[in-house]
What does this fold into?
Amino acid sequence: MAWDLLFTNVTLADGSGSVPFSGELAVEDGRISHLRPAGGGAQDARAVPPDCHVVDGSGKVLAPGFIDIHSHADLIFPLPEPRRSELLAGRIAQGITTEIVGNCGMGVAPVSEAGEPILRGINAWLTPESIPWPWRGVGGYLDHLEKQGVPLNVGTLAPHGPLRVNAIGLVASSCPPGALQAMRDALQRALEEGAFGVSTGLIYPPGMYSDTEECVEMARVAARCGALYTSHIRGSSELLLPSVEELIEVGRRSGARVHHSHNEAVGRIHWPKVEAVLAREDRARDEGVDLTHDMFPYPAAATTMLALFPPSSLAGGVEALLDRLRDPSQRRRIREAVEGQTPDWPPWRPGGWPHNLSLAVGWNRITVGSVGSSERRDVEGLTLDELGLRSSLPPFEALCDLLIAEEGRVSQIIHDVTGDGSHEEGLEKLLTHPAGALCTDANDYGRGKPHPAAYGAFPRVLGRYVRDRGCLSLEEAIRKMTSYPASLLGLEDRGLLKVGARADLVLFDPQKIEDRATFEEPRLEPAGISMVIINGHVAAGEGAVDGMMAGVVLRRG
It folds into this structure.
């Protein structure tokens, strides 16, 4: 026996959903090597190695490290040290030890030489700074991360957006048969190189131009490989229910495991649809469709400001959009759509639109999250109504001018998502449903005001919803953060406290844990978390080493 770390007198929430129990747990060579409930026999103190770090866990809970199944840190992980550790510090501080990138059809691999400029434009809002992209395939991307080291464990999905851009560019049309075959082949390679599944983002370019058949074909490739199909569905407002039906159809026709990314209802009049969505997804499971979801525990979402524009204006990429906004007649036509076009089905037809966010919530419920340059940082945090007042312009006109000035590098925070500060019934329904995992869907890119979930999502659940509101048991919340997302991804040695599992661990005080990050001060780290262990190394808390590359790159299979 050569234990490196021993937790004694601690409450063990093992991730399975079972009731927590008192006991002790030891770590050796990056794995859990000993686990014993209290009363399982006296521990001979002389058997503990003299150089073993012993932690008295009295009054605290030890759980598996939290797994964020929905991250957008694709271009944070490749950053040079110490920048990547700085931007990922809030992840580790809230107990996240593993995260999955490549969500919502967005990502940086696979990438072709011709596709790279288009993808750089689409991803500009989530790019902390310009860096080379020396990779082409998913395998090359993961190799790059592996070579330089990562602070926490990371895996990726194969995003549909790059697959489509590489095949036909950013065009507002259906995919011809030859290009569709090229996408299928490229997805097969990505899955063989370690991607955990394929993701679609059907409100973003180029996913918004894809029809249901294209989604089914992507899901069929995933099904053959036993991988996951995830989707940011067509719309979460007017088209929420038909969009859910489409996801169910994809699952039924392909046989794939399908996953509803950040299940939500955007806009006050659409909040009541959450109950109907959950009921329909329950029926789909009864009908044999393997369907799951994740959610973030906030009534607001973060995304690119480009999501406010109709599909026709985004054809050709960001530069093409900016050229249209510079042309008065084209800008006028786009404004008429933004201020008056209600989405209807099917949204991929010419002139269609899956999700008009400004109509769903209003200009006063959308704020500027970040801008790319330092000259206009004073607009960060303003609502689009306030942005217009400052410029003495209508909100749409002020927004267009800002996007042109910032070359499209603007993010937004959308409020009134499944509730507000006074109404959280829909959020709680999504949170407590057994098919739902927890996620952040938020990252800190080093500028502006990031979504507070980047620093507080998981502690928020354990403090606000478990301890204070009692709408979720501690053991069920931990399951949703650990073994459940691990099972969706096929991670067999993470997400549970068991002998032989990787030693990804979080030690916290259940009476003190809480999120401190707010929309006004989003970079405040949570309270109540004592230690975070990644692969047996103390990554946060007592004995932590700054900048430690304790993570590993994860590959499916």
